[in-house]
TrEMBL record:
This is Stringent starvation protein A. It comes from the Bacteria.
């Protein structure tokens, strides 16, 4: 979302923490295309 200029409200902190946890997984990273990796 930050890549698209979208800022979540403070009430979405739990969602952001969950996303970070998932995005940091090796298996998730391996599933991304080169373009998707560049967005992060």
């Amino acid at each position: 979302l930050p890549h698209l200029g979208i800022k979540l409200p403070d009430s979405a902190k739990a969602v952001e923490r969950y996303a970070e946890k998932i995005f940091n997984r090796d298996t998730f990273q391996a599933s991304l295309s080169t373009a998707e990796r560049g967005m992060r």
